[in-house]
What we know:
This protein is an alpha/beta fold and 454 residues long. Helix content is 45%, strand content 12%. The chain has a 5-stranded parallel sheet, sandwiched between helices. The chain has a 4-stranded parallel sheet with strand order 2-1-3-4, with helices on both faces. It starts with 23 loop residues before the first helix and ends in a 10-residue tail after the last helix.
Amino acid sequence: MLDLTPKEVKERSALRINPCKTCQPVGAMYAALGVKRCMPHSHGSQGCCSYHRTVLSRHFKEPAIASSSSFTEGASVFGGRSNINTSVKNIFDIYNPDIIAIHSTCLSETIGDDLGSYIMDMDIPEGKAVVHTNTPSYVGSHINGYFNMMMGFMNYLTQSTGASNGKAAVFPGWVNPGDIREMKRIARLMNVPATFFPDQSGVLDAPMTGKYEYYPEGGTTIEEIRGLGDSKGLIALGEIIGVEPAELLKKKWKVPSTLLPMPVGVSYTDAYVSALQKLSKAEVPAELEAERGQLVDLMLDSHQYTYQVKVAIFGDPDVVIGLTSLALEIGMIPKYVITGTPKEEFTRKIEALFAKYGVTGCIAKANSDLFELHQWIKNEPVDLMIGSTYGKQIARAEDIPFVRAGFPVLDRYGGTLLPIVGYNGGIRLVEKITSALMDRFDRDCADEDFEIVM
């Protein structure tokens, strides 16, 4: 399928081929779906909204509700004020959300719609709320859209009474609902009452009940978002996605914050547990210590299959940083590590991991794409690939074992329900990585090496 990808690598500054990202409004929509009884609203054409919903629905295998301003030629020329006013009235009348979260698109950004002033002039029903953020599709990636939407909620809703509410705030970053459930479980075990924002658990992994609900039981409530300003401390998970929301909460409402990497693998999960421990002053429970020991034991047991294996890792920046740390912990060589999100801090974080573990000859690059990754692999192959579904074409073309992780995974089921974070998530990842490598050994080995016990 990709046999014609050339080996010669040429620098490209204005062209992306086979991107390793999607656009800001997708991230804004996903963030809004993590708020209870919230209707995400795309201020642009119906086609934009349909695409963003489709991407999320195909990954989560769940309906991703959202509405649209339904721009036509007139709104594209004269502005979408009339469209958004009519939309908001109809949404409250027909779908009755508690809050509407509006994000812009490249079309409304290009014509210069001032959503803030439009909202100020709206007749919003009592007890309801409307928030917005700007998410031009031609800047950044879905990661930018996600944290921009978070800050939109906070700027409109968050307050401070000057008295602590006794709860921690946790920004989980862009992860699956199964990951948020694991983060919350660890916080409960550490005896830390916490508000997770956004919280897509219970929304995009809601159970089958036989009756469809527009607004499932999950999500961060409006009152919890208002109370973020009274939090006794913030743990922001994701050193790329968490920076700006954490800085906003600290600067505007004086909430002390701790910025941590995504808790993937042993050391990064240790950092999350330690941060929780500082808030609770509690001992680490035996349950967590046992899970950590099981992960370390599995790493040792499988080390003969993972040691010095060359791996290419790609996807969203914070998940990729976590996966790279785990790969290094189990003795792998992360030969190529890329993200499509244009954040150079990503490159510095990955290169710091290379230096920490003493690996050389590896490449880390932000604002890259899968075409470039494929060219590198053609010049110097790897033994394994880890990333989103979009890597499967490269894996097939180059006959490389492939482990799916991150966003989006469009061709497998159940992954969004299971964690890759925490010690339990680390166990799942090491099992998946080791199984992929052992399956390849079984496929390629000579008959006399085809063993029952490995």
